[in-house]
Amino acid sequence: VQLQASGGGLVQPGGSLRLSCEASGSIFSIRYMGWYRQAPGKQRELVALIASGGTTNYADSVKGRFTISRDKAKITVYLQMNSLKPEDTAVYYCNVLTVMDYWGKGTLVTVSS
After folding, report:
1. Contact yes or no for 47/35 (Cβ under 8 A)
2. 3-class DSSP state for residue 24?
3. Which of 3-13 are b and which e, b meaning 16 or more Cβ less than 10 Å from the residue's Cβ?
4. CA 63 centroid distance within chain
5. Residue 50 CB partners (closer than 8 Å, separation 6+)
6. How far apart are CA 52 and CA 35, in angstroms?
7. Rounded CA gap, 28 and 31, in Å?
8. Which is nearest to 3 in space by CA: 18, 20, 21?
9. Which among 45, 43, 37, 51 has a CA at the least distance from the CA of 8?
10. How far is it, in rounded angstroms, from Cα 16 to Cα 35?
């Protein structure tokens, strides 16, 4: 199983980016798909999760600005990020939880003028 994340880059404060993460290989019984991030010198933290039933959960710092969604058929999870702030700068990792815990390699998001 591989998770391929894309969509990171450099954006000005107030701008938007859309991250995508597609899973390839045999994945069964997905419980959650989600995004985490790790800023320089900080621990990895949860950004957003979407459960198998569609329930979503967000970190307080991104509520109202970020939206997580998925395409079940493509086993792809998305993160629409709006009103980006410099403090959103981090490497963003996608995660798929089944009975196993799968992680992508990360995509860098830099918010700077």
Report:
1. yes
2. strand
3. bebebbeebee
4. 14
5. 32, 33, 34, 56, 57, 68, 69, 70, 77
6. 15
7. 9
8. 21
9. 37
10. 16
pLDDT along the chain (113 residues), means of 10: 93 98 89 96 97 96 97 93 98 95 95 97
| Lookup: tokens for 39 | 């800023």
Contact in structure between 89 and 72 (CB atoms under 8 Å):
no
Residue owning tokens 């980016």? 17
Encode 43-53: b = buried (16+ Cβ within 10 Å), e = exposed.
eeeebbbbeee
| Predicted pLDDT of residue 72 | 86
19, 107 contact by CB (below 8 A): yes
Q: What whole-number distance in Å separates Cα of residue 42 and Cα of residue 63?
A: 20
Cβ atoms of residues 13 and 30 within 8 Å: no
| pLDDT value at residue 68 | 98
Q: Would you state the pLDDT for residue 26?
A: 83
